Every structure is written in structure tokens, then in C-alpha cells.
Amino acid sequence: MARRNLENKRVLLTGASRGIGRFLALELARQHCRLLVVARSGGPLEELVDELKQQGAATAEAFPGDVSDPQFRQRIVEYVRSEWGALDVLINNAGVSAHGRFAHHDEQVLRQIMEVNFYAPTELTRLTLPLLAEGEDALIVNLGSILGHRGMPHNSEYSASKFALRGWSEALRTEMNSRGIEVMVVSPGTTETEFFDHLLTKTDSLPWGKQKGISPEAVARQVVRAMRLRRTEIYPNWRGRLLVAVNRWVPKLVDRVMNRFG
């Protein structure tokens, strides 16, 4: 198939105020998309909108709120329907995490992470499917993680949420094929963002220390390129790609390495 043309595409992007989401919004603005950016932080979101217009966005609007709130998700969909009539691209990027052993956390930590990382994107997608069906060359992009391929100690809840997101995305891709809606999963490894500065809780420090990551700008560029090339899944960080490959072929070796940090 021909490459996807992103110019003037109607794009809904969650988790847009910082990190990968912010740079993804800026990269899409340079493609002259029409952007509706969503995040809990209203101030940074409004500042981002000004930048998006300067970078060439066809239009850019902020929609502050919590995507884990069902009523807020409904308001997003109503706004898109009233302003655009249809949706071309949905990017589920909002996410949260926690650091620490599973035994040291309570049920609420797992529920909060699943609510934001899994239920929010699945239910927002469910609500927007009629709009995507009316869109042009429609696409759903789900921001997963390398931890959706290989679970990590001290990140058990986050790993679970990303495994769930990837499995659901694979199933959804086949269901949407006949409707002309594509589904892409992005599985970054460690990225140099403020993500780990906003943990739900931190009962332990990660025993392997701080790892050098890829920049969010580089991730954003790879995501937009993959959108144009119609990829189904990408691994922006080479270390992440390597971990997935090694875990696929010699999982016991990876188990032995991970056991050192358990």
C-alpha cells in the first residue's frame, strides 16, 4: 500500500503534556495535522498548543482532563464528533507506573496502573471506533513498552498493563482489518523523559540503576515515520529490540539475569 499521508489528518493524542507525547505532538504538527491534545495538566497543555501552531499544525486544541474518568472520555468523543465529525488517528499514549516489589504494594497500585494504562485506552478506543470508521485512512496507535514483551522485577504492575495492552492490540488489529482501521503498537525501551519522576509510588529503587535511554524526540520521529510506512509494531530503542530477541530465543538466560535483581 502507498504511504499514509498525515497532512490535515484529525489526530487525538492522550498524555500529550510531557515526554514522548509532547514530542509526538510537535512532530505531528510539522506534518500539518489537526491536533486535539489531552492531558491532566492544563497549563503545560495550553503552552504546547501555542508551540504546535508555531510548528505548523493545521489546527491545535487543548482538552485537559483525566482519561481514566469515563465521563471525561465521553466528553472527548462528543467534542470530536461536534468539531470534526470523524477521527483519522487515535494515539493512546497516557501512562503511569510504580517502582517496587509486588509484595510491597497494595491492590490500589495495580488497579490505578491498569485503569490508566489499559482500561483508559481500551475504552477510549471503544468510544471512538464509530468516529474512526468515518475517518480517512484510520489508524490507532498504542504506546506500549518493551516491558509488554518481557516482565521486569520491581515493575510487575506496569509490565502487566503493557502485556495486556499489546495482547488487546493484536486482537483488535485483526478485528479492525475488514473495517479499514489499522492498529500499530509502539514498544519503546528506556527513554529519557520525566516519566519516572511521576510514579504512583516508589517502595524500592531499581537495582540496576539509571540506564541510558533514547531521547523522546527520537522516539517521536520513529513513530511518525512508522505511521507513514504502515508498520504494525516498532521498537524505537535498540537495547529494547535486543532484549525482545534474546528473550524470544533464550528466555532462561534472561530469567537468570533477572533473578539477580529480584
The average pLDDT is 90
Using only C-alpha atoms, the radius of gyration works out to: 18 Å
Instruction: Give the helices and strands as they follow along the chain.
Output: EHEHEHEHEHEHEHH
First-residue to last-residue Cα separation: 46 Å
Largest sheet: 7 strands, parallel
Query: Which ranges are low-confidence, i.e. pLDDT below 50, for 5 or more consecutive residues?
Result: 195-200
Q: Helical amount among residues, as a percent range?
A: 40-55%
Largest sheet, order of strands side by side? 3-2-1-4-5-6-7
What best-fitting shape do the alpha-carbon axes yield?
Answer: globular
What count of helical segments does DSSP give? Answer: 8
Roughly what fraction of the amino acids lie in strands?
A: 5-15%
SSE class: alpha/beta
Q: What do these coordinates show?
A:
- The protein is an alpha/beta fold and 262 residues long.
- 47% of the residues lie in helices and 12% in strands.
- The chain contains eight helices and seven strands.
- The chain has helices spanning 19-30, 42-55, 70-83, 107-133, 156-177, 216-229, 238-249, 251-259; strands at 10-13, 34-39, 59-64, 89-92, 139-143, 182-186, 233-234.
- It has a seven-stranded parallel sheet, sandwiched between helices.
- It is globular, with a radius of gyration of 18 Å.
- Residues 195-200 have low confidence and may be disordered.
